[in-house]
Amino acid sequence: MKFHNRFLFLLIIVFCSNYSSATETLEWAFGHVPPYIYMEEDGQPYGIHAEIIKNILKHAGIKYKPVSVPNRRARKMVNDGVIPFAMGPLVALDNPEDFHISHIIVAKIDLRAYWIGDKKTVTNPIDLNGESVVVITSFDYSGLRTYLDDPVNKVKIAVEVENHKRALSALSRGRATYMLGYRQPVDLMQLEMNVQNLNSHPMLQTYNHLFINKSVKDSRKIMDKLEQAYSELYLHSGD
Questions:
Q1: Which one of 45-49, 82-86, 151-155, 220-224 scores highest in mean pLDDT?
Q2: Is the pLDDT of residue 109 over 70?
Q3: Would you say 193 and 172 are in contact if contact means Cβ atoms under 8 Å apart?
């Protein structure tokens, strides 16, 4: 069964239809996909992948202005050319030939199933049929939420919570047999909460690239600058 990584496309979106020099400003539009990108009270984007993009833009000498956009409209806006620059999975592009796509994978997201103690290993969505699950309300889980909500599959959404900390807490208290979450935030919460006997298995792994619509002036040069910036920051840092 194939699930498209729709929500991951929302991580980074930049309006740049007329961008042609470092003196102009890109309007960086972003969705709300914590912990990877989200908006704080100051209106600025934060999160694991937000920091990567901010660092790349700064290193490349490209000025930008962050703007929040509705999650549901982001993919269509990029594919329609309204938003010509984005970071996301390649499956999000309806016509990849319309874009310059980075050779570099700039970010990876690991969606995993979690359980405590000796339980059946979950490796794909079908394994959750007939089981109870903790989920985070705002996540589409790369399209997996549609499968979970389909009554034919008999997956019981036992608890819906706001974040990974509450999800892990519900799982540790036995309110459901399984939990769906993302590896990086769960790893942090596990250490903070000292959750014992936590097991997991990957459900979906998504590899995110940069892509820019070819209709943008100097789009190839812009992509080259961004790839060079990423390489210098993250591939040749000497760490």
A1: 151-155
A2: yes
A3: yes
Full 3-state SS string of the chain:
CCCCCCHHHHCEEEECCCCCCCCCEEEEEECCECCCEEECCCCCEECHHHHHHHHHHHHCCCEEEEEECCHHHHHHHHHCCCCCEEEEEHHHCCCHHHEEECCCCCEEEEEEEEEECCCCCCCCHHHHCCCEEEEECCCCHHHHHHHHHCHHHCCEEEEEECCHHHHHHHHHCCCCCEEEEEHHHHHHHHHHHCCCCEEEEEEEEEEEEEEEECCCCCHHHHHHHHHHHHHHHHHCCCC
Contact 210, 223 (CB under 8 A): yes
User: Which pLDDT score is estimated for 238?
Assistant: 46
pTM for this entry: 0.69
Q: Give yes or no for a contact between 188 and 41, defined as CB atoms under 8 angstroms apart.
A: no
Question: Is 57 or 197 the better-scoring residue by pLDDT?
Answer: 197
Looking at residue 239, its pLDDT comes to 43
The token duo for 27 is 């309007």
Mind listing the pLDDT tens digit for each residue in 141-158? Answer: 877 888 999 999 999 999
